[in-house]
Amino acid sequence: MPVITITTEWQGFDYHNGILKGKLAAACPGVPVIENASGIPPFNIQHAAFVIRNTFFHYPAGSVHIICVKSEESDESPLIMVEAQGHYFIGADNGIFNLILNSPADKIVLLKPEDQKEPKSNTGGRIDETSVFTAAAAAAVNGDDIGSAGTPAASFREKVPFRATIENNSITGSIIFVDSYGNAISNITREIFARVFDGKAYNITVRSNSNSIRHISRSYSSEPISELVAIFNSLYLLEIGINGSNASTLLSIRAGDSVRISADPTGTNPGKLF
């Protein structure tokens, strides 16, 4: 059974949560509404895209994913619904859909602002995206042709994702996400790392040369407490953390900070690639 997920920049105490969930309960009775993530840093579509890109495919096919992150309607960011990879995505066309999917959509619909039930006179002329999103979600979960929710569109706005680069036997990437434990997740994949450094000695630095790691660990617990650790996480991305501590706080690591892996000619033990 398809579900409706919500990913928002709202904190748990925010009244916007109740408004959207209440409208969805009324318009889509019996359909589970699941909070996929909340408290996304305001307007940070890269953070939101990372969360949705790595979670949506775990939900049943046909599920609807509402994105309330930088979702205010404008001429530059109209409200749209995207059908892709067996799922539906609803939000503002601010570049986030390309970051989530990194592939063409099966169908794109420019949503009708007039679908909102709240009179514009009550909103000062502002489009109420919660009503528009609710109407679109209802169309999708009811099995209607999503074209009925608006008008067809040829494409969505593109925003280029940050990618790691290989140059002169080194890899340069960046931190793209800091999790609840303060672990810093980079955009360096296990595949690109193995292509350059499997079986070779290397040196990993994050943010500055003083934060240096010379081997990949199997897990945090396999290293001493307070040790700076590099692992490949469940997403097959290089992750930097400190066993038992918050690396982001202690080392002032933030999204956007650089991660560099370079050959270590003095290294004698390249270690295993877990």
Break the fold down into its secondary structure elements and pairings.
Elements lengths: L3 E5 L6 H13 L5 E5 L7 H9 L10 E5 L10 E6 L2 E6 L3 H6 L5 E5 L17 H13 L8 E3 L12 E3 L2 E9 L5 E6 H8 L4 E5 L1 E6 L14 E5 L4 E6 L4 H5 L6 E6 L11
Parallel strand pairs: 1-2, 1-3, 3-5
Antiparallel strand pairs: 4-5, 4-6, 6-7, 8-9, 9-10, 9-15, 10-14, 11-12, 11-15, 13-14
Helix pairs in contact: 1-4
Commentary on this structure:
The chain is α+β, with helices and mostly antiparallel strands and 274 residues long. The chain folds into two domains: 4-152, Rossmann fold; 165-263, Bacterial fluorinating enzyme like (Elongation Factor Tu (Ef-tu), domain 3, Beta Barrel). The chain is built from six helices and 15 strands. The protein has helices at residues 15-27, 45-53, 96-101, 129-141, 190-197, 247-251; strands at 4-8, 33-37, 64-68, 79-84, 87-92, 107-111, 150-152, 165-167, 170-178, 184-189, 202-206, 208-213, 228-232, 237-242, 258-263. Strands 8, 9, 10, 11, 12, 13, 14 and 15 form an eight-stranded antiparallel beta sheet that branches. Strands 2-1-3-5-4-6-7 form a seven-stranded mixed beta sheet, with helices on both faces. Strand 13 and strand 14 form a beta hairpin. Helix 1 (15-27) packs parallel to helix 4. It starts with a strand and ends in an 11-residue tail after the last strand.
